[in-house]
Design goal:
Helices cover 31% and strands 13% of the residues. It contains 21 helices and 19 strands. Strands 3-2-1-9-10-19 form a six-stranded mixed beta sheet, sandwiched between helices. Strands 11, 12, 13, 14, 17 and 18 form a six-stranded mixed beta sheet that branches. The longest helix has 14 residues. It is flat and about 125 Å long. It starts with 29 loop residues before the first helix and ends with a helix.
Length: 550
């Protein structure tokens, strides 16, 4: 179909020349100006809206005369007395708390920190006061109000009753290793031994047996004290010993062997009965009967003047220098994600995983065909071969064949076995073909989501790693990636890691026990004799007790 022809446009109009005016207008004469200048009539003035009078009427109001200034009589002011020389008494000098040592200020467990987590000193004091249940005004004492029996330490804290008590002993019993030392005197645990006890009916020929220390006689009457070996002495003994791990999955399963382990540690630290308080960093979800029995053991068998039990995740957060965050506590026997806000555990956000360091070690031993190797030797292999990949599918396919020498001298050939054991913590459903298992990244994200909305931003910025199982290569990078994939796009994910996170709970418990208000926090002997073992649940609450109330 053809379009109709449009008419041709009209031609452009020619430009017309602008008009010109050649006439000259003469100026007016004097007579014309006088006759033409007729005064204009004034415009009518509208009346006012408020009074109804016009502005002209208001202008015609007569103005009263003002008397001259000289006729005005001003009364003379009375003579004021001169000001005193010292109108106010002098102010008392303000005693400020001593500044913290630079090493303590920077003693963060983080390799990377956030710029949005700066808090004022008063707020930190209030948080710490709520953390330990005492007024914040008593956290720091000046030199004038400090008791004469207290002396300041190198880190800015004060010993309480140093002449009455020795420095507290801090204990951290784990499924794999036991850490012990003196609070604030040891910057790190001075006694780190495997939590293992070897038993034999033969006569002692080497090593360091348990018994005959002179503290208490806790051995079973059916056993000779000389047939038990603990820790490194048990592993290095040439005898044919039956090894037992008294702590399994974070819980005490053999009290006889645990008492042997405790006695060994006390002997290493040269414990003085009745003169040194005892602080224990306990695992979350510790059963109530176990806590009561441990308190009874310390009070009656070791004559402890004071006992305090602190949660391991909370101590790890204190060691990091923070009071808000999510603690990823993964040791040899248990893994937990614990959200903490301003020193208080968020009980509904605590997640417990069924996979820990022992499962990672067992999987590596099975893949390498070394299931019969001793656990301690296999852990050394895991430290060298184990790693966590950010892209497991690709790196497993591209991994080359490698060789390594085992501690016993054998040559081991491996490919991706070290990657599989690390992947178990983040994707157990794929490794074990069990869709019911939750990975660590999902558990961390779930813990944060179960907190309040206004708490999540700080928790995303403060994800703290704790425990020996988090020492695997690439662990922090993979956790950051897992959480970032699930978190909102605007959330800033910061994972705090340190080479000392193996004993971070011990460091936090040491800092907590070095405060001058530690005596108010502890369970004294008078409290124990008055209330019994049940006082452990009121003086040292565990988050399991809070969860039971929901």
């Amino acid at each position: 179909m053809q379009r109709p022809n449009r008419p041709a446009p009209a031609p452009p109009r020619p430009n017309r020349p602008a008009p010109t005016f050649n006439a000259v207008i003469p100026p007016p004469t004097q007579s014309e100006v006088s006759t033409s200048s007729v005064p204009a009539k004034p415009l009518p003035i509208p009346p006012s809206k408020s009074t109804g009078q016009s502005v002209k009427d208001v202008q015609n109001i007569p103005i009263l005369p003002v008397p001259p200034l000289s006729d005005t009589i001003i009364p003379a002011l009375p003579d004021l007395p001169p000001p005193p020389e010292n109108p106010l008494p002098p102010l008392d000098p303000i005693d400020l708390p001593p500044p913290l040592d630079d090493s303590l200020k920077n003693s963060s467990i983080a390799e990377s920190s956030s710029d949005d987590d700066d808090e004022s000193g008063e707020e930190d004091d209030d948080i710490m006061g709520r953390l330990i249940g005492v007024p914040s005004s008593s956290l720091f004492r000046s030199d004038s109000t400090k008791s004469q029996n207290s002396t300041s330490s190198d880190h800015g804290y004060y010993w309480w009753n140093q002449e009455m008590y020795q420095p507290p002993i801090v204990l951290d019993f784990g499924s794999g290793y036991t850490k012990a030392g003196l609070a604030m005197i040891d910057k790190e645990p001075s006694c780190i031994i495997p939590s293992i006890v070897g038993q034999s009916n033969l006569t002692k020929t080497g090593g360091k047996p348990i018994g005959g220390i002179g503290l208490v006689g806790m051995m079973s009457p059916t056993m000779s004290p000389s047939n038990r070996y603990v820790g490194t002495d048990a592993l290095e003994s040439k005898l044919n010993l039956d090894f037992t791990y008294p702590i399994t999955r974070g819980n005490i399963t053999s009290w006889d062997n645990f008492e042997a382990l405790l006695e060994y540690v006390m002997a290493e630290l040269e414990y003085v009965p009745g003169d040194q308080p005892i602080v224990i960093a306990e695992q979350i979800f510790t059963p109530r009967p176990h806590r009561e029995k441990l308190l009874q053991l310390l009070m009656e068998s070791y004559d402890a003047p004071m006992v305090y039990m602190a949660l391991q995740p909370l101590c790890s957060l204190i060691a990091c220098g923070k009071t808000t965050g999510v603690v990823i506590d993964s040791g040899d026997g248990a893994t937990h994600t614990v959200p903490i806000y301003r020193g208080d555990v968020v009980p509904m956000g605590v997640m417990k995983l069924s996979i820990a360091g022992k499962d990672v070690t067992d999987l590596l031993a099975t893949d390498l065909g070394q299931s019969g190797m001793r656990k301690e030797m296999m852990e050394d292999v895991k430290k060298n071969l184990g790693q966590v990949c950010t892209n497991f599918a690709y790196e497993e396919y591209a991994a080359p064949m490698r060789t390594a020498q085992l501690p016993d001298g054998k040559i081991l050939r491996y490919k991706s076995e070290g990657m599989r054991c690390g992947e178990l913590m983040f994707d157990p459903a794929q490794i074990l073909s069990n869709n019911e298992l939750m990975g660590l990244g999902e558990a961390c994200y779930t813990s944060i989501q179960k907190a309040s909305i206004h708490q999540r931003r700080e928790m995303y910025n403060n994800i703290v790693l704790s425990g020996g199982n988090t020492m695997i290569k690439g662990f922090a990078e993979r956790l950051e990636k897992e959480v970032k994939d699930r978190a909102p796009p605007a959330a800033k994910i910061v994972v705090h890691a340190s080479e000392e996170r193996l004993y971070a709970p011990w460091v936090g418990a040491s800092i907590l026990s070095s405060r001058d208000i530690f005596e108010e926090m502890c369970i004294s002997r008078d409290d124990y004799e008055e209330s019994g073992v049940g006082i452990i649940h009121s003086k040292c609450p565990n988050s399991l007790d809070k969860i039971g109330k929901f």
